[in-house]
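Give me the fold.
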Amino acid sequence: MIERSIVYFEDPGPENTCKVLELVKKRADEVGIDTIVLASTRGDTAKKAMEILNGKKIIIVGISRERFSEEAMKAAQEKGFPVIFSNETDYHYPEEMRTAFRRFGQGMKVSVEDVVIACRRECLKEGVDVISLAGSSRGADTAIIIKSAQDFSTVKIREVICMPR
C-alpha cells in the first residue's frame, strides 16, 4: 500500500503556479521521476518551471507558436528542452474523454492531452511514468503522475499531486 497526500487548492488559477511547481519537484524527487510535461500557452509557466525544476527534463507544450514568448522559447532551447505545439500535432481527443477529464478541471484535461501530444511528437516514450501539469487558464493548478501513451484510450493516471476543488 502507498499513502501519499493530495493538495487541493481552494480556487483554480495562476496564483497556484509556484506551489504546484514546488509540489511537482518534491514528488518527482520522492518517486524518481525525471521527466515533466507542462502546459504553457505564453511561456510564463515554462520560465518559472525552468527555474524551479532544476535537474529535470522538461517538455513544454503550447497551443501555438504565435502565442508563445520568444524569450521563453530561447531559454528552453538553450537548456535543450523541447517546445511543441498542439496546433502542429496530429491527434484526436475524443469529446467524451475531454468532457470526463474536464469534470476534474481544465488542468486535468490538458495534463492528459499534453502527454499524448508529447508521445505523438516523439519527445516522450510510451509507457513511462511522468508528471504532467497544467492550469485552468493561466499558470498551473493541476499536477498528476501519468503513464505516457500515444492514444487517449491507453493513458493511465497513476496519482494526483494537486488540483483545484
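The mean pLDDT is 96.
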